[in-house]
Amino acid sequence: MSGRILAVLASLCLAACVAPQPPVPRASTGVLDAARASAGDGSAWAEACEDWDDWDKRAPAFHVFGDTYHVGTCGISAILIAGADGHVLIDSGTRNGARVVLSNIRTLGFQPENVRVVLTSHEHFDHVGGLWWVQENSGARILTSPQALDVIESGEADAADPQAGMHDPMHPIARHMVSAIEPGEPVTLLGREFLPVATPGHTPGALTWQWQDCEGAECRSVVYADSLSAVSSDDYRFSDHPDYVQAYRDGLARLAALDCDVLLTPHPSASHMRDKLLAGDLAGGMTCAAYAADRLARLEQRLEQEAQGGIGQ
Ligand SMILES: [Zn+2]
To answer: Could you tell me the pTM of the whole model?
Structure first.
């Protein structure tokens, strides 16, 4: 095992770390180049996903930029950042959607066993309900936020989640396979730096992720921004939780300030991904600042509805 992999494993080994994972054969540069050359540009995705809202509908993987690929379904994103020492995956999709994700990874010429780390956006079944299946098939370690840790491990919703009680429990994951990162502190995974940004609101533990990817001398900042939609169970009022609303606003401000060339979101429709693909420019269209402004406007609208007595009465 290379010193680099050991260093990464050591950095992932927080309190509950057990024996290191077995060595994984390096993906040759040729495999990375072949994936980049063979992956579609997203036009096939746009064609297959006209009815994009189907969370488990099979969709073809496509190349985003550099070593970044979209490997999700029509309705739910999963993002693969490939590397010679192994791959980082963000989100798994639903329990069934995870099968599509693993199949898409194989189609790109990569092996699920080489997925070494899985990161999370927010702790709901449509984005992390398939984590256990990905974990079973890859042995990957899972990194999440401190607030989402118990939900990911137990599969049970956080009582502070505005949607608590609305969803069935998810499959639990062995405690020693899940670790929490510190939002705001960059984490180096398999040689690449990722910045986790706390963007609570849709859930208490929601994260936005930012990383750099390059094609030759051209580098772009890619942002996978969380849903940030003020959705809740019938009897929840955001206005009853002023600290939570303030944290929600703070996260939106952090998101708006991010260096953000390419914006991706857990629900592709939220950032108009299909329109961007049809326009042939994933770096165009909605920016992080515009996305954050849109989400803030929706939050204000929701708070206004609550003030008018229209919700949660
Ligand atoms: Zn959700």
So the answer is: 0.91
Tell me how far the alpha carbon of residue 282 lies from the centroid of ligand 1, in angstroms.
23
What are the backbone dihedrals phi and psi of residue 102, each rounded to the nearest 5 degrees, phi first? -65, -40
* Range with the poorest average pLDDT among 43-57, 111-125, 246-260, 278-292: 43-57
Q: Contact at 8 Å (CB) between 227 and 200? A: no
**Running DSSP on this structure, what letter comes out for residue 139?**
-
Q: What's the token pair of residue 182?
A: 């510190």
Cα gap 96→171, rounded to integer Å: 12
Distance, CA 147 to ligand 1 centroid (Å)?
15
* Cα–Cα distance measured from residue 218 to residue 188, given in angstroms and rounded to the nearest whole number: 21
As beta bridge partners, residue 179 has 143
> Cβ distance 114 to 190 under 8 Å?
no
161, exposed or middle or buried, with CB in 10 Å at 0-12, 13-18, 19+?
Answer: buried
Neighbours of ion ligand 1 (CB under 5 A): 124
User: What is the CA(203)–ligand 1 centre distance, in A?
Assistant: 7
Nearest C-alpha neighbor of 255 from the set 184, 180, 179, 149: 184
115-119 and 207-215: which strand pairing? unpaired
CA 163 to ligand 1 centroid distance, Å: 8
99 Cα to the center of ligand 1, angstroms:
20
Q: How many A from CA of 17 to the centre of ligand 1?
A: 29
User: What is the CA(198)–ligand 1 centre distance, in A?
Assistant: 15
pLDDT digit string (tens) for 139-171?
999 999 999 999 999 999 999 999 999 999 999
| Helices of type H across 129-241 | 131-138, 149-154
Domains along the chain with CATH numbers: 3-307 (3.60.15.10)
DSSP 147: T
